[in-house]
Amino acid sequence: MALAIRLARGGMKKRPYYRIIVTDARNARDGKFLEKIGTYNPLLPKDSAERVKLDTERAAHWLSVGAQPSDRVARFLDAAGVRTRAARVNLKKGEPGDKAKERAELAKQKEEEAAAAAAAAVIAAAEAAEAAAAAAAAPAEEAPVEEAAAEAPAEEAAAEEAPAAEEPQA
Q: 77: part of which helix (H) or strand (E)?
């Protein structure tokens, strides 16, 4: 028979109260038990002496017989000095799951694409500004030539129209 030292829940809805019991590991959580060796009231402050009450002599007896404590009861036993608990390390606890990793990678790719597009837009804007500056500088130098060329055809057209207008009068 595998013995377990674990918590059995009591109390009301949203007001938990636990008994620390010794039972057969196959029994239900709140089912029959061999002995009640303490209580645990999680609603009390952590520094309260009434939060965990434990009969350390009986706990030591059941541990010597081969009872295995649950994780929470092992913490209580360690705090009471009955049994030392080895520190457990879960290296994967803070690591995200597979889907979260995929989402993070997609977000990273989108950021890189957005950064590349922004860089391309900045480069294109800089090239457009350079082209506009070059275009603004070049027409300023060529403007008198273009104005003169634009005025010459206008004068020629006016000259051609004037004699034609004079001929019908004569």
A: helix 71-80
Longest dimension (CA), the chain: 143
Q: How far apart are CA 163 and CA 169, in angstroms?
A: 10
Determine the Cα–Cα distance for residues 64 and 58; give it in Å rounded to an integer: 10
- Residues 133-137: contacts with CB within 8 Å, 24+ apart? none
Measure the CA–CA gap between 32 and 45, rounded to whole angstroms: 29
63 closest CA partner among 129, 107, 4: 4
CA dihedral 22, 24, 28, 30 (to 10 degrees): -20
User: Concatenated DSSP letters for 107-148?
Assistant: HHHHHHHHHHHHHHHHHHHHHHHHHHHHHHHHHHHHHHHHHH
Q: Tell me, what amino acid is at 135?
A: A
Using one digit for the tens of pLDDT, what is the confidence trace for 48-95? 999 999 999 999 999 999 999 999 999 999 999 988 888 778 888 888
Q: How confident is the model at residue 161 (pLDDT cuts 50, 70, 90)?
A: low
Q: Are 82 and 61 in contact (CB under 8 A)?
A: no
